[in-house]
Amino acid sequence: MPSGAKRKRKPEMTDANTAADTFKRDLLAVLPNLRAFAVSLCGNPDRADDLVQDAILKAWGAQANFQPGSNIKAWIFTILRNEFYSQMRKRGREVQDTDGHFTANMAVHPAQYGMLDLQDFSRALSDLPEDQREALLLVGAAGFAYEEAADICKCRVGNNKSRVSRARKRLQEVLGVEGEGEFGPDDASAPVTLRAFVR
Amino acid sequence: MSEKKMRSEITGHHSGEMSARPDPNRIISQKLKALYNSVEQEGIPDRFVSLLEQLDDAERRQKKAETGND
């Protein structure tokens, strides 16, 4: 991030305006990451975007509670995560939708990675228990330290670590990557091989 | 697995013949990141940008109304 970013400020702008500006800018900056977390957590892009919207509204309303200078990323992730669980409680267990909304959506975003392979992966991820999935996502993808992730999930660091390692182990089992090198050293051959192991 | 080995897997600096085989943890990490990044790289949907604009505008208007019009 460039230091001394050139931001034009109108002279009549008050400190409150400036703070709100910073808040909005920081929130925007973290949104792509937050959204990726939401999509990976609930496995359904439409529901994930609703979740992100709810989190934005909650965060905006609670702006006064946010300490400027503290970690806005951890703060908004906590809000979204709490919202996810409270919606899940409201709707009952049906919230978890693993039947392909995410994977169907993934298919229209071809990346250089083998998409079929990623679909298998996302399916396996969706099948993890929520606590393991969120721990793995926070530490392994969203960029949080174990301590921060534990704060977000309101659990002890040791708990969080064991959730992450159980999640990794489970994914290895499901995707068949735990064995003794059934596939070659290059990642390019992995997608093809993995397909053979799932279903 | 030793931490040294793990590090070499991550950095891609292979020191021994054993490392020709991909580390399962590394494969999982890579796939997780690939999946996550594919969503992250979609950027911010317009609906969120305009939502924040609306919230911001509403707040500014409210503040202006509170401080009186001058």
Keywords summarizing the entry:
heterodimer, A: about 200 residues, mainly alpha, 9 helices, globular, B: about 70 residues, rod-shaped
Q: Biggest interface pair, residues each? A: A-B, 47 and 34 residues
Number of helices of chain B: 3
Structural class of chain B: mainly alpha
The percentage of residues in β strands of chain A lies in under 5%
Instruction: Figure out the total of helices of chain A.
Output: 9
The helix-and-strand class of chain A reads mainly alpha
What is the straight-line distance between the termini of chain B?
Answer: 69 Å
Distance between the termini of chain A: 45 Å
Strand count, sense and barrel status of the largest sheet of chain A are: none
Large-scale geometry of chain A: globular
Radius of gyration of chain B: 25 Å
Oligomeric form of this entry?
A: heterodimer
* Global mean pLDDT of chain A: 79
SSE topology string of chain A: HHHHHHHHH
Low-confidence stretches of chain B: 6-17
Characterization of this structure:
The complex is a heterodimer of chains A (199) and B (70). Chain A has 199 residues and is an all-alpha fold. Chain A has helices at 15-42, 45-61, 72-91, 101-107, 115-126, 130-140, 146-153, 157-175, 190-197. In chain A, helix 1 crosses helix 3, helix 2 packs across helix 3 (72-91) and helix 5 (115-126) packs across helix 9. Residues 1-6, 95-101, 104-113 and 180-199 of chain A have low confidence and may be disordered. Chain B has 70 residues and is mostly helical. Helices cover 67% and strands 0% of the residues of chain B. Chain B is built from three helices and no strands. The A-B interface holds A 16-17, 20, 24, 27-28, 31-33, 35-37, 39-40, 45, 49, 52-53, 56-57, 60, 106, 109, 111, 113, 117-118, 121-122, 125, 136-137, 140-142, 168, 171-172, 175, 177-178, 180-181, 183, 185, 187, 190 and B 20-22, 24-25, 27-45, 47-49, 51-52, 55-56, 59-60, 63.
